[in-house]
Specification:
alpha/beta, five-stranded parallel beta sheet, 9 helices, 49% helix, globular
Length: 205
C-alpha cells in the first residue's frame, strides 16, 4: 500500500487540462516509487479556481481527513488573480500550513510546499491588462510570504517560479488554453520536487 499522500491546492495540483497521470503529485509519487520510496498515489483535494480560503472551506467539509505520511501544498495563484493582498494571503497560508502539519502528525519533515508559478509568463498572461511585470511582482510577494512561513515552521519549500517563467511561453509546456501547464511542465516541477521529497521521506524524523 505504501506511504499515504495528501495533495492540497488548486488547478495546478488537480492538473487542469491534463490526464490524471500527468498531474505533478501523481508524477512525484511515481518518480519516488521508481527510486524505491513506496509513496502511494495521492488523495488530491484541489479544484481549479480555489483561493486559500476556499481550500480551507473544502478541508472543513472533507473532515475528518485523518493523518498522512506526506502532505504537499501549492495554493495562492487565485488570490493574486482576484486582486487580493499579499498580507491577507500570508495569514490564510499560515493557517493552511498549520493544517498541513496537523495532517502530517506534526512532522515538519513530511510537508512539502511548492511556490506559485508565474502565469504572467504564459500567452494567456500576456493578454492580461496588468502586464507580465506587475503579475510577476505580485506573485513574487506572495511567494516570499510563503517562503518566510515555511522557514518559520521548518517546512521544505521548492521554488518552481523560475522554471515557469523560463518555459512559460513554450507551447509544449502549456495546455491548449495557453494558461495551464502541460504534463511536460509538470514533469519539470516534479524534477525539482523529487530530490527534496525523497530526502523528506527517507528521513527518520
Amino acid at each position: 500500500m505504501g506511504l499515504s499522500y495528501l495533495a492540497l491546492g488548486d488547478s495546478y495540483t488537480i492538473g487542469e487540462a491534463v490526464a490524471e497521470n500527468g498531474r505533478w503529485p501523481v508524477q512525484l509519487a511515481a518518480g519516488l516509487r521508481a527510486q524505491g520510496v513506496g509513496l502511494a498515489d495521492p488523495r488530491i483535494i484541489a479544484t481549479t479556481g480555489w483561493t486559500t480560503d476556499e481550500l480551507a472551506t473544502a478541508l472543513d467539509l472533507s473532515e475528518p481527513l485523518g493523518e498522512w505520511d506526506f502532505v504537499s501544498l501549492l495554493i495562492g495563484v487565485n488570490n493574486q488573480y482576484r486582486g487580493r493582498s499579499a498580507p491577507q494571503y500570508a495569514g490564510e497560508f499560515r493557517q493552511l500550513l498549520q493544517r498541513a502539519l496537523g495532517y502530517a502528525r506534526g512532522r515538519r519533515a513530511r510537508v512539502l510546499v511548492l511556490s506559485i508559478p508565474d502565469w504572467g509568463a504564459t500567452p494567456f498572461g500576456a493578454k492580461d491588462a496588468r502586464g507580465a511585470a506587475v503579475i510577476g511582482a505580485e506573485l513574487d510577494a506572495f511567494n516570499a510570504a510563503a517562503q518566510r512561513l515555511c522557514a518559520e515552521y521548518g517546512v521544505a519549500y521548492v521554488d518552481i517560479a523560475p522554471v515557469s517563467r523560463r518555459l512559460g511561453s513554450d507551447a509544449a509546456m502549456l495546455a491548449d488554453d495557453g494558461l495551464h501547464p502541460s504534463a511536460a511542465m509538470y514533469a519539470e516541477w516534479t524534477a525539482l520536487a523529487l530530490p527534496v521529497a525523497r530526502g523528506l521521506l527517507t528521513d527518520a524524523a
